[in-house]
Predict the structure.
Amino acid sequence: MSDGFPIQIPDRLPVHIEPCPIVQAIFETRFVSPQPWATMPGLLFAHIRQKYPEQKTLPMAQLPEELRRQDPALLILPLIQFLSDTFLIQLGPRVVSLMTKPNTYPGWSAIQQELRWLLQQIKAAGFVGETERLSSRYIDFFAGDIFTALRLGLQINDQPLRGTQADVTTFFRRDALSIRLQVTNGAIVATKEGPTPGSVLDVDAWFGPLDVDLFGNGLARFAEAHHAIKGLFFGLIKPELLHKLNPTYE
Amino acid sequence: MTTLSLPTKSPAYTLEEGLREPADPPTIRRGASGEWAREELLLRKLGPKGWGRVYQFRNYYESGWGEKGRVLSPRALDAFFRFLEEATFPADRTSPSVFLTDRGGIELCWEDCNGKSVQVEFTGTGAEFYRAATDEEGAVAIDGLAQLSRRLAA
């Protein structure tokens, strides 16, 4: 914790854990574009159709544009999705993202390879003007109450709060990286077995416009954010949970 | 069990009913993660009018506004916030004005303590400024913004 960051990151991180708690990983770029939204899906699809032949319009696209503009949180949501066997690409007027399919995390090297390919296609499509934000986000699911297994919790009268539903969101800065951490023990997740109640650890790590250029250092920034999330995850969990995840090291 | 996916939440999961946030009344607007400090800064330094104008520029102006206006550059906006963090404006003057420039920059104008105009335009690479009191103009890079801010306040 010498750098003032409140979470102690282990020096050595596992290369594999089993069972894998990752529900979904999302690698997102927000941007501004000289192109109108109406042309963007066509520009991108022309470059990715071989690998992502299927497309799906998302419900948010039904909302009138005026309404979406009222809320910045809606403005950056994707409106259309392109699907391949392993990944999803989501596109909106100010956002493009690569997502893993639910509960089928393919591993970082497969993601990195796909990101490299996707960045080339986005560059060729030519609709990204300037990068506004670039992030990696991991959503993990655990059966039961995750707060007992984390070095993080809530207290009332200096006593740990146990057995109640809780949802904690906090925000950290680490050098150029911004990190939003959300932990809840009251989530319902669509697992392979259907909707399942339990806990979620949701970490989003991003760089702002002055620290990222999608076609310059984009790939390296995705990797940095990924690595920061990984370190944060293993810094947060207690040894008992780590043991249950059967970590393997290089 | 019915699960609802709120549009602003991840489709990967939804919170159980007891943890779902009630709809905010229109008087409350929550800042996005990491944005709260910036919103507070805008309100403190530029007042509600300046805060509202920056909000409009970020969300309502697309490429092609006006005649050939460009969309607000995220880098210019970041540069603007870096400057604003260090800026002090005369308390006895009206709040600074904010403008979106044709080339996608953001411009800040105010009067110094003698009523003379000061203008700074933020771009993706830094800022260009003009100070009427000394008829001085120039440009600084991103890493010179804090210094410029202190200099123009002097």
About this structure: Chain A touches chain B through 48 residues (CB under 8 Å).
